[in-house]
């Protein structure tokens, strides 16, 4: 049985779920080397050192290194070269620091230090034998941004490496544990429509646009209810506290769900997932909401387009905020029809691990075979 070393410097949230579930479902032996999911910048700077020590301390031999985008792969390989030199490497991009939007509160961009993290992603992709992106949007945006990124440097810009990376790259959708939501399924409630927010409380999710849309519709006296989930941080945008006060009469829940069962029930209780994000390389929280039969209203950009059938996208996508608010308004007004005609689960069921685990195994086994 082939043995895979899965190396994850940021072992938390969706990264951890992805790693642990693949470990459980793979027909291959998957051993995880990880660090706690905090201090992301330090993980990208120094995580390779600690993980190299873990890897070298193991007495196991491996047929493949499966590493995430948070790893400085070049440093890791340099530190482990006497053990890792003959092992093929597959790099999986959950996100990247080249096209990720920086918060206005972060000081690194003004110091030019943001380029360092993007360069780690670039050099890691160059060092890997195969590169995988979780969506076509992610694939296109990363590779499309590399030429202007490299042109910022004074000389020896190595632009030919972009095509080198492209040739060894492909899309491999994020495997998700969607079927675990099924035991918590409940009949959608009658009464006013329920709008869902189930993302992190951070800048890149554009919460201002989300709540401004609800403020406007509340001022129009449209009746709705609101469920706000997701992880908050000390530096969470102040719009959340403003929304808690201004929409107090509409709120059914506001804050982090205490456990998965509660989270799942809140998703099944919701009718509409309205999204305004500035960035989503895949959009796992959106996929979860759609799987739980939430009517999606999504920006016509990022990875969201890929989650909808080609023939039905016009109904659910919007180009401008004004159009998105109008789609949300119409959804409120036609909520009875929406509740009767739910078929959204079929849009995203293909991402469940029951469908993808075998694909992962086959792809990784082929890499191992080709380099044996």
Model description:
The protein is an alpha/beta fold and 372 residues long. Helix content is 45%, strand content 15%. The protein contains 17 helices and twelve strands. The chain has helices at 13-25, 40-57, 73-79, 81-84, 108-111, 114-127, 136-150, 160-167, 207-219, 239-246, 260-269, 284-291, 313-316, 321-333, 335-340, 345-348, 353-371; strands spanning 3-11, 29-36, 64-68, 89-93, 130-133, 169-171, 194-197, 225-228, 251-254, 272-274, 295-299, 317-318. Strands 2-1-3-4-5-6 form a six-stranded parallel beta sheet, sandwiched between helices. A six-stranded parallel beta sheet has the order 9-8-7-10-11-12. Helix 9 packs parallel to helix 10 and helix 9 packs across helix 14.
Approximate helicity band: 40-55%
Kindly report the average pLDDT value: 94
- The outline comes out as globular
The major beta sheet can be summarized as:
6 strands, parallel
Provide the β-strand percentage band: 15-25%
How many beta-strand elements?
Answer: 12
The N- to C-terminal Cα distance equals 14 Å
Q: Strand arrangement, largest sheet? A: 2-1-3-4-5-6
Low-confidence stretches: none
Task: Label the structural class.
Answer: alpha/beta
Q: What's the number of helices?
A: 17
The ordered H/E elements are: EHEHEHHEHHEHHEEHEHEHEHEHEHHHH
> Over all CA atoms, what is the radius of gyration?
22 Å
């Amino acid at each position: 049985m082939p043995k895979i070393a899965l190396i994850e410097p940021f072992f938390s949230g969706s990264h951890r779920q992805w790693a642990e579930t693949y470990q459980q479902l793979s027909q291959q032996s998957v051993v995880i080397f990880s660090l706690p999911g905090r201090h992301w910048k330090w993980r990208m700077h120094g995580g390779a050192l600690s993980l190299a020590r873990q890897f070298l301390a193991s007495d196991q031999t491996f047929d493949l290194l499966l590493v995430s985008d948070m790893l400085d792969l070049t440093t890791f390989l340099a530190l482990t070269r006497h053990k890792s030199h003959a092992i093929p490497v597959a790099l999986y991009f959950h996100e990247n620091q080249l096209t990720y939007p920086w918060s206005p509160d972060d000081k690194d961009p003004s110091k030019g230090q943001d380029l360092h993290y993007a360069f780690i992603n670039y050099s890691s992709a160059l060092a890997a034998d195969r590169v995988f992106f979780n969506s076509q949007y992610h694939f296109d945006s990363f590779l499309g941004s590399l030429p202007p990124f490299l042109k910022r440097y004074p000389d020896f810009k190595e632009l030919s490496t972009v095509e080198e990376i492209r040739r060894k790259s492909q899309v491999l959708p994020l495997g998700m544990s969607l079927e675990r939501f099924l035991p918590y399924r409940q009949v959608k409630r009658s009464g006013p429509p329920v709008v869902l927010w189930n993302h992190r409380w951070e800048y890149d999710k554009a919460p201002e646009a989300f709540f401004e849309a609800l403020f406007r519709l509340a001022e129009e006296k449209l009746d709705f209810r609101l469920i706000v989930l997701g992880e908050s941080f000390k530096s969470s945008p102040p719009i959340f506290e403003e929304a808690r006060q201004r929409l107090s009469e509409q709120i059914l829940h506001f804050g982090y769900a205490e456990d998965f069962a509660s989270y799942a029930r809140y998703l099944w209780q919701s009718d509409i997932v309205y999204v305004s994000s500035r960035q989503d390389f895949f959009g796992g929280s959106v996929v979860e909401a759609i799987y739980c039969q939430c009517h999606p209203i999504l920006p016509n950009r990022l990875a969201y387009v890929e989650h909808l059938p080609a023939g039905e996208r016009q109904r659910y996508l919007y180009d401008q905020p004004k159009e998105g608010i109008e789609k949300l308004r119409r959804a409120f007004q036609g909520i009875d029809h929406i509740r009767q005609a739910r078929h959204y689960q079929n849009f995203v069921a293909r991402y469940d691990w029951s469908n993808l685990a075998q694909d992962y195994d086959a792809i990784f086994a082929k890499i191992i075979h080709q380099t044996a």
